[in-house]
Design brief:
It comes from Kaistella jeonii. Cell wall formation. Catalyzes the addition of glutamate to the nucleotide precursor UDP-N-acetylmuramoyl-L-alanine (UMA). It holds the Pfam family Mur_ligase_C. It catalyses: UDP-N-acetyl-alpha-D-muramoyl-L-alanine + D-glutamate + ATP = UDP-N-acetyl-alpha-D-muramoyl-L-alanyl-D-glutamate + ADP + phosphate + H(+). Its main location: cytoplasm. Helix content is about 35%, strand content about 25%. Strands 7-8-6-9-10-11-12-13-14 form a nine-stranded mixed sheet. It folds into three domains: about 1-85, NAD(P)-binding Rossmann-like Domain (Rossmann fold, 3-Layer(aba) Sandwich); about 95-300, 3-Layer(aba) Sandwich (UDP-N-acetylmuramoyl-L-alanine:D-glutamate ligase); about 310-440, Mur ligase, C-terminal domain (Protein-Tyrosine Phosphatase, Chain A). It is α/β, with parallel strands linked by helices and about 450 residues long. It has helices at about 10-20, 35-45, 55-60, 75-85, 90-95, 110-125, 140-145, 160, 190-195, 215-225, 270-285, 290-300, 330-335, 360-365, 375-385, 395-405, 430-440; strands at about 1-5, 25-30, 50, 65, 85-90, 100-105, 130-135, 150-155, 170-175, 210, 230-235, 245, 250-255, 260, 310-315, 315-320, 340-345, 365-370, 390-395, 410-415.
Length: about 450
């Protein structure tokens, strides 16, 4: 079988490596330049590759094409592949065909990385043989090739779900839905939401689907869709007969038996993290992990880097790195958790953002806005009459200096950009690391 892999990053290399190991004929093509460390891995694995171009004739002669999630579905080469009717899959689809391990897959607009890491921590803490992959950790395909895990916990994006055919998790979780990546979904919120729901489309009645009963869009779509998996809800607003909910500052999970824990014992703070902890606990109970082990995991879990990460306190000013907040809803959670007046660093590549969702929170919590991006005009126009102080900057060094000059003792400087990072940075990690470096300088 002729396999072509598009994209030479973590997921692309992993897919090519697995295909090679399975005895397939493999060719990897990247329109950009491949990083030196991945190039070396490709050479060591004797995988043929090209960079800086797509050799169309060769690509379109493939039996199966594996696409990295970063390649836009509107790209010219993707159009041609679809025209020819060649099977086009994501790495998660491809790798899942070669493992019998139970897959726990997590999607949603916000909280994916935290909840995926938390479920992985719960399983690892219970001494299960488990791998972490998808949008986080090491390549899922590479682990399928080299490891012998019984479980995989995968963070899954809508882009990866766009390119599945048979992907069937044992447990799927849809944490929440908010308007994100609309530029890739014809600026249609329902189209984006339905892409997320694909996580459950191949599940059968011996599988589980964990969903958020408080999420309006999820509830609307559940009325139209036929879900075969056993559905288990969680809610922070109402008591449930089955699932996870809040009751008198306690989180409760009711399945075959009951698990409960005081909110103050959780290592994660904020309302959104109570929802994430409920979802993760339900997954733990489905996998028959005992209550004591789940409780211990929820108490010992360390928050994810670049997600409400406390960097330092300098002269009474807290500096918080929330660079992973690349949409308005993620920033909503960050602002909601602020206990002190905030100097808010915001901006980057706008993905069709509607800032009305956070307008009232900004009026209540933010004393100054520092825009960070090549084009800050949309943010300035929207917020100029909502706060007295608004500044435009075009480098992290400048943004941190301006923020420090504005912040007084008892304030918080919050980097929570609402936007993608690609105008000034390689990715959100690069943006978060630069913020931390400038703060510590």
């Amino acid at each position: 079988m002729k396999i072509v892999v598009l994209g030479g990053g973590e997921s692309g290399f992993g897919a090519a490596y697995l295909a090679k190991k399975k005895g397939m004929e493999v060719f990897l093509s990247d329109k950009g330049l491949i990083k030196e460390d991945f190039k070396k891995l490709l050479i060591d694995a004797d995988i043929e590759f090209e960079e800086g171009q797509h050799s169309e004739e060769r690509i379109l002669a493939a039996d199966w094409i594996i696409k990295s999630p970063g390649i836009p579905k509107k790209a010219d080469i993707i159009f041609k592949i679809n025209q020819k009717g060649i099977r086009l899959s994501s790495e998660i689809e491809f790798a899942s065909q070669f493992t019998d391990a139970k897959i726990i897959a997590i999607t949603g607009s916000n909280g994916k990385t935290t909840t995926t890491s938390l479920i992985y921590h719960i399983l690892k803490n219970d001494d299960l043989k488990v791998g972490l992959g998808g949008n986080i950790g090491k390549s899922f395909a590479k682990q399928v090739a080299d490891e012998d895990f019984d479980y995989y916990v995968l963070e899954v994006s809508s882009f990866q779900l766009d390119d599945i055919q048979n992907f069937r998790p044992y447990i799927s979780l849809l944490l929440n839905l908010s308007q994100d990546h609309l530029d890739q979904y014809n600026y249609n919120y329902e189209e984006y939401a339905l892409a997320k729901f694909r996580i459950t489309e191949n599940q059968e009645n011996d599988n589980f689907f964990i969903y958020n009963k408080d999420d309006v869009m999820s509830q609307n779509l559940l009325e139209k869709l036929e879900i075969k998996a056993k559905m288990i809800p969680f809610s922070t607003k109402e008591k449930l007969k089955e699932g996870g909910y809040l009751n008198d500052n306690k989180m409760v999970v009711k399945l075959a038996d009951e698990f409960s824990m005081k909110i103050e014992e959780l290592s994660l703070v904020g309302n959104h993290n109570i929802a994430n902890s409920l979802a993760a606990s339900i997954a733990g109970k489905i996998l028959q992990i005992n209550n004591e082990s789940i409780r211990n995991s929820l108490m010992t879990f360390q928050a994810v880097e670049h997600r409400l990460e406390q960097v330092a306190e300098i002269d009474g000013v807290k500096f918080i790195n929330d660079s992973k907040a690349t949409n308005v809803n993620a920033t909503y959670y960050a602002l909601e958790s602020m206990k002190q007046p905030a100097v808010w660093i915001v901006g980057g590549v706008d993905k069709g953002n509607d800032y009305t969702e956070i307008e009232e929170l900004v009026k209540k919590k933010v004393k100054a806005i520092v825009c960070l991006g090549l084009d800050n005009q949309k943010i300035i126009d929207f917020f100029q009459d909502k706060t007295e102080l608004i500044y435009s900057t075009s480098s992290m060094e400048e943004a941190v200096k301006v923020s420090k000059s504005l912040a007084e003792k008892g304030n918080t400087v919050l980097l929570s950009p609402c936007c993608a990072s690609f105008d000034l940075f390689n990715n959100y990690e690069d943006r978060g690391n630069q913020f931390k470096n400038e703060v510590l300088k």
